[in-house]
Design brief:
The protein is built from 5 helices and no strands. By secondary structure, it is mainly α. The protein has one domain.
């Protein structure tokens, strides 16, 4: 036999053990991060669906009556429809106030009221105008309302986007 003494590693961990432990740690970290991202995405989806159901669809239902008035009566005088336009816009204001009182406390209702009042003032300031002349102002107001509602949802309700905006990434 040989008089060789076998060499043993005194450190306890071989290089392959260190690589294996590192791979396990990286795998577990990526698994936890993936689970967190799935949770966060699902949470955002649920919050958005709730916002869309409670806010956007109701605003759309209120404004759909005005859409019909503007589309079907373009050449008619505004005098005939001022009351309907005003009542729809008042209904929208009441809805936004009740939404603020019940679910979304951070919504900027005075801003929406000023948008609506600007539009209704245009309708009442004109004496003999047709609805066609105010259709652009109506759609501009409608787009501003939707834009501000979605901006509110992204910045205030879906908080993850607010964090990115603070960092300058959005």
């Amino acid at each position: 036999m040989h008089n060789c003494i076998p060499f043993t590693n005194e450190s306890g961990l071989s290089a392959s053990d260190v690589i294996a432990i590192t791979a396990i740690i990286v795998s577990l970290t990526s698994l936890l991060f993936s689970i967190y991202l799935i949770y966060l995405t699902k949470r955002m989806e649920i919050l958005y669906q709730e916002f869309e159901t409670l806010c956007i669809k109701n605003v759309e239902n209120i404004l759909s009556g005005l859409d019909k008035i503007f589309d079907e009566n373009e050449l008619n005088k505004t005098d005939e429809f001022r009351v309907q336009i005003t009542s729809s816009m008042l209904e929208l204001q009441v809805f936004l106030v009740s939404l603020k009182d019940s679910v979304y406390e951070k919504i900027n209702v005075p801003h929406f009221i000023s948008l609506i009042e600007d539009f209704t003032e245009k309708i009442y300031d004109a004496k003999e105008a047709t609805l066609l002349e105010f259709k652009g102002a109506y759609f501009s107001t409608k787009l501003k309302i939707y834009n501000d509602l979605y901006t509110y949802a992204l910045e205030k309700e879906l908080r993850i986007f607010r964090r990115f905006k603070k960092r300058g990434q959005v």
